[in-house]
Write a structure and sequence with these properties.
alpha+beta, seven-stranded antiparallel β-sheet, 3 helices, Alpha-D-Glucose-1,6-Bisphosphate, Chain A, domain 4, 7 strands
Length: about 170
């Protein structure tokens, strides 16, 4: 399932970008995610105009009764790895779920993140991605459910970016 999420900010690109690469973004975002039990930054390395970071998430959501035999609390955790290129104003990201290595073949999520200057000192952010759950029978329903949570997370991140950029 391909998706795109777009936000426009009444913030210049350079100020928004400072928020994107800020080591405090993870803390500002954490406060805006009620269904996330934990969000921590494992890596934050800014070298030669490139930010490499790893955020570790653990969700706190109810597991539907039909899925309890298959889905454990540990499966509701994942790493988000991203690499942001400051000169290009773009990022590539991937999601790696905390499941047994042999189960990782059933799920993949990756994409890009681009900031673009607009007129009047505004900025557009485009998040484009691909989410794939390779489990027959529940695939379509589960992908839609996961995507709705992904959208909530990027909405929360947009608000966190606004908060940080407006402090500058």
């Amino acid at each position: 399932m391909d998706f795109a999420i777009e936000h426009e900010f009444d913030i210049p690109l350079d100020a928004l970008e400072l928020a994107v690469i800020s080591p405090t973004l993870v803390h500002t975002l954490r406060k805006r995610l009620p269904n996330i039990e934990a969000l921590d930054e494992r890596e934050h390395s800014l070298v030669d105009g490139k930010l490499d970071r790893v955020w570790v998430y653990r969700a706190n959501v109810p597991i539907p009764s039909f899925a309890r035999a298959y889905v454990t609390r540990e499966m509701l955790a994942w790493d988000e790895r991203s690499s942001y290129d400051i000169p290009r104003h773009t990022s590539e990201w991937t999601i790696e779920p905390h499941v047994k290595p042999e189960w990782r073949k059933y799920f993949s999520a990756s994409g890009s993140y681009t900031l673009t200057s607009l007129d009047s000192g505004r900025t557009k952010r485009l998040v484009a991605g691909k989410l794939e759950l390779r489990v027959p029978l529940v695939r379509q329903v589960a992908e839609k459910l996961i995507l709705s949570e992904v959208k909530k997370m990027f909405e929360a991140e947009a608000e966190a970016l606004r908060d940080l950029a407006n402090l500058a």
